Structure formats: C-alpha cells, structure tokens
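We modelled the chain as a single entity of 287 amino acids. Its sequence is:
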Amino acid sequence: MSLVFLNGALVPETEARVSVRDRGFLYGDSVFETLPVYSGRVFLLAEHLSRLVASASRILLPLPWTVEELAQSVTVTIGANSLDRGSLRLTISRGTGPPGIDPLAHCQPTLVIAPAPARDHTTDRERGVAVVISSVPKASAEAIPADAKAGNWLNHILARRDASEAGAFEALLLHADGSVAEGTVSNAFAVRGGTVATPPADGRILPGITRWAVLRLLAELGIPAEERVLLPDDLHAADEVWITNSLIEILPACSLDGEPLASPWPLCRHVQQAYTDWVRRECSGGR
C-alpha cells in the first residue's frame, strides 16, 4: 500500500484525508507539480520546485516551507515507498481557514505528496500518438494566470473530452486569436526544415519543465530552435510534431484531427535519446 506524505506525516493512502473545508477541494485554490522519478531520484527536482514557488507567488499563496524542506519531504516519500520508477504528485493548497474566498485570509496550507507507478509509453514513442485540436479555447491569461501550475484545471479537463471522444492521446487548446497554446497536459513543438518551433512562454501558457529541457537540449545539440506563434496549419505542414511533459517525456504525433502527420520523426528520435542520456546521467549515477 502506498504511503502519502500529508502535512509532515506518512499516512497509508487509504487513510489520507483533507478537510472538507480545504480550499483546494472547495475552489481548486492550490498549486502542484508532477515529479518524475527514475532510479529513486526526481529528475530536475530543483526546476520543478522553483516553478512551484513561482506558481504559489502568482496566486498569492504564502508557503510555510522552504525549498529545502520540500525537497526533503520528497526524498522521504520516495524512500518510504521504495519508489524506483514512477512519479510523485506534490500538491499545496491554501488549506483551511475562515469562510469565503479572500486569498489574503489567514489559512493553514495543506501539503500532500502522493506516489504513483510509472506508465509505459514505449509503444507511444515507437508509433506516435494521435492529437486533436480542442473546441475548448485556452482561458485568457488576463483572467487566470496561465503561467502558474494551479489546481483549477477545469478548462483543460473540458478540452480533454475532445481527445477522449476522438480516441486521441492529447488535445491542443488554441488561444482566442486561433494560435496554438498548449496541450491539456503538454507543450507542443513543430519541426520544419530542420528548425524546431514552440509557442512562446509569453504568460499565456504553462512553461513546462520538459519544454525547457528540450529547448536546452536543442541548443546543446546545435539544432535551430525558436519560440514563435504557431497556427494549426503550421502543425499540419510540419515535418514533425511533438508533445512533451515530465511523464510522457517527448512523444511524436502521428496524426492531427484524424489526418496523418509526417513520420518517422528522425529529429524527435535524436532528442529523445539525448533526453534519456541526460536522465541516466542525473538519476542513475552514469549507469
């Protein structure tokens, strides 16, 4: 049985409880990170925790824990579960406090770190995945901070319905201007003429940790890359289309809205291998 880290204590998952008055439960008033675990270590933990702190700041959520204390809690959770390969969902809600939605009200935050086993995406990497454009638009960044990984995921949940109904792996949301924003749980990349492009981190998307890692790898590999506006037509005309996040890593898309996309993704294969090598160096002691 999995052990969940809940407010400083390790609790069997079936016994882990949060208050019915917790604001994360009531309003989605929370931030979170999904941490990939390889060989008992979180890949890019510092980057994930840095984004967590930034997300909390964006939604005016004061954190009573230091980054070092959060990192230690992550290590404790991995050890208690003997987690070799999998993931952790680290969630911090504003917690319980007086009735109402005032973000400045004094509340006691809730910290939950829950483990999960790894999912095998080998077949997805080999064959590619189907992607669709969602009918649900990306919420305006003026209304909801898009660059914060906050707990209210309703916009993306509704968009995910389009993927499910089409039998696709992922759905991409568009901005109001018709340009590509991001996937429900991923960032998008398109390759054309040897140059890799991805929508800009201009405050209108969540800047994924794997997105950042891919851009860094592209620079190290000497592969031209740019952040620029992409339209759905750019994806249809691309030599390769990828989606990325910390659990799927880098997956090629084999179709968009039911229409085949170019393959066999040689550049994606090159970057996938570089990513795997980086993980091995950081988490497996070079093995």
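As a brief sanity check on the tokenised model: The longest helix spans residues 266-283. The chain has a mean pLDDT of 96.
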